Amino acid sequence: MEKSSLITLALSKGRIFEDTVPLLQAAGIEVPESPENSRKLILPTSDPNLRLLVVRASDVPTYVQYGAADIGIAGKDILYEHTKEHPGGLYQPIDLDIAKCRLAVAVRQDFDYEAAVKQGARLRVATKYVNVTREHFARKGVYVDIIKLYGSMELAPLVGLADAIVDIVSTGGTLRANGLVPVEDVAPISSRLIVNQASLKTRAKYLQPLIDAFAAASQGK
Ligand code: PRP
């Protein structure tokens, strides 16, 4: 096969992968293997012109920005942080309306968040989403010390590392299991299609039909 006809789509396993498969199916593309039953990081599809790269959610924009993948699917949470640090370079044409969840502030059940905020206390907030968290509290006029973590944020309030966390809440199960409660929404989250700008110019013949199929499938959901 001519190399230039091969389109590479980067996405992460879990919710985004699960919600992307039906969109691909709506475009007539089957994905025979999934990251749940395969350790492969490059997955073929029934379309010989399309392959999938399975990467960490926060790495998806990087693969697309550098052109190692032509397109990708990434949550607005990840995109917001990425574009703050690497402005420009990514075309984000479609909100796919998948992997919907929200970014929220959560605290221990016994922590009086309202009172802490009213008293003008300086809050310690643990999060992976440093930029969005800083802007959220700046808008509220609340002083915060932000502690950057890379995962398992729910632990931080339980062991005295932070007063609050800002994290993704989907079912709320993870917060409940750890005795935390959501106290404030920061932003609604869904995933967007992202496209490498050079690929869009040089490989439009293969890429544009796929972008159109994603647009149609996400509208028809
Ligand atoms: C997110 C988040 C929570 C969990 C919330 O993690 O960090 O741990 O999902 O979901 P719930 O409200 O349905 O319990 P994710 O599974 O995306 O993995 P991550 O830790 O790699 O971010």
Automatic annotation (TrEMBL):
Example of a GO biological process term: L-histidine biosynthetic process
Single GO molecular function: ATP binding
Record's GO cellular component terms: cytoplasm
Record InterPro entries: ATP_PRibTrfase_cat, ATP_PRibTrfase_CS, ATP_PRibTrfase_HisG, ATP_PRibTrfase_HisG_short
EC number assigned by the record: 2.4.2.17
Cellular localization per UniProt: Cytoplasm
Reactions catalysed, as given in the entry: 1-(5-phospho-beta-D-ribosyl)-ATP + diphosphate = 5-phospho-alpha-D-ribose 1-diphosphate + ATP
Domain ATP phosphoribosyltransferase catalytic: 56-213
Record has Nucleotide-binding as a keyword: yes
Main location class: cytoplasm
Pfam families: HisG
EC primary class: transferase
Protein function: Catalyzes the condensation of ATP and 5-phosphoribose 1-diphosphate to form N'-(5'-phosphoribosyl)-ATP (PR-ATP). Has a crucial role in the pathway because the rate of histidine biosynthesis seems to be controlled primarily by regulation of HisG enzymatic activity.
PANTHER family, A to Z: ATP PHOSPHORIBOSYLTRANSFERASE, ATP PHOSPHORIBOSYLTRANSFERASE ATP-PRTASE
Subunit structure: Heteromultimer composed of HisG and HisZ subunits.
Domain remark text: Lacks the C-terminal regulatory region which is replaced by HisZ.
Protein family membership: Belongs to the ATP phosphoribosyltransferase family. Short subfamily.
Full protein name: ATP phosphoribosyltransferase
